[in-house]
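Friendly challenge for the regulars: who can give me the structure tokens for this chain first? No prize, just bragging rights.
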Amino acid sequence: MKKTKPIFEVEKLRVEREAVILHEVNWCVERGQHWAILGANGSGKTSLLSALTGYLMPSQGVIRIGRASFGAADWREVRRSVGLVSSSLGHRIEPGQTARDVVLSGREAQINFWGRARAAEERRAARVLRHVRAAHLTERSWAYLSQGERQRVLIGRALMARLKMLFLDEPCAGLDPVAREDFLKFLGLLARGPHAPTLVLVTHHVEEIVPLFTHVLLLSRGRTLAAGPKANVLVSARLSATFGAPVTLRRSGARYRLEVGRHVGSFKR
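First reply, four minutes later:
Bragging rights claimed.
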């Protein structure tokens, strides 16, 4: 069988400033996969995400998206195929921007949108807002959107650029339990849609790794502990190493939860 060409690849990625932040991370994403990056606070998740989206210069290593390699291509152009949903991005949006403005800003990977859009762009923005179930928010200002509504609009902004990958940086932070479940269900619908991008969820909660995610990357202190199919990676012993404490992974149906301080050998697949 012919090997599928990766759509995203990281080789020996190292980020060093005053100290080493990431230690030679290797990672490969193929078409049809959706990944979760899991790790404790300080494990390097945010630094990895910043490097992968071109906002943090690696000290060494290779990042490839399709045929484009970091350093050999204009990363501003590469960013148009890689979307980012992050609270840090939301903080930079002007409070008077409407949901429509935020979505339109994604076309050219801008932060805020000013001026007039072409008719074709207006129509596409309207379709995107319907797709992310936010059409009713079209004229509502950013300042008056709830956290869950903001996350959907930011996903719409990313989809406006017809991207290949969408990185979700702890998108459920600040959501109440009901809003979190609603958002996770929405991600499942998004992943099943036509021309859906590859989704990468960055989190430290196994409860957020819903069935749509097929693969998991575990990070600890800037190092890759494991990366591969979810069933092989999500086991108690590896998660105990990831979080630096004995934990037991429990499963209820297709969902997971962690118990801290229990015997790590009790997880059954």
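The CA atoms of residues 65 and 261 lie 40 Å apart. Residues 264-269 have pLDDT under 50 and may be disordered. Your move, everyone else.
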